[in-house]
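Technical annex B. To support the medicinal chemistry partners, we prepared a structural model of the target in complex with guanosine-5'-monophosphate, based solely on the information shown next.
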Amino acid sequence: MGCLFCNILSGATPSEKVYEDDKVFAFKDINPQAPVHVLVVHRVHTKNLDELTADNSAMMGEIFLGVKDVARITGVDKKGYRVIINNGAAAGQVIWHLHVHILGGEEDLGPMLSIRPN
Ligand code: 5GP
Ligand code: ZN
């Protein structure tokens, strides 16, 4: 059992690293939904946004600074990219370690929500 993304952070589960620093780790999604699909996780386990307190302000800043670095490293910053957090079951969260999806590498990423097409 345990947390899959904690196992990726520890190296017990292999992943394709895109970026890391002392706060966050970024790796390719195993089931990419766009040419570039990277996940950014903080080294500190937090279930999702519902658990956050004021003590996590720095953590969230560190995650989004990691997002910016990944966008630059992968090149998606040039044309634009989408950042998604699936928070809770209705949003499709299946890994209960807060993570940010970075999606890009397309000319047009399409409608924000597939259930509400433009
Ligand atoms: P969620 O739906 O919780 O927001 O996103 C979980 C993501 O983790 C999914 O996009 C899924 O493809 C990805 N994922 C699940 N298992 C693994 C794994 O073992 N390795 C990697 N790299 N990604 C995974
Ligand atoms: Zn975890």
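Notes passed to the chemistry partners:
Residues 3, 5-6, 45, 97 surround zinc ion (ligand 2) (CB under 6 Å).
The radius of gyration is 14 Å.
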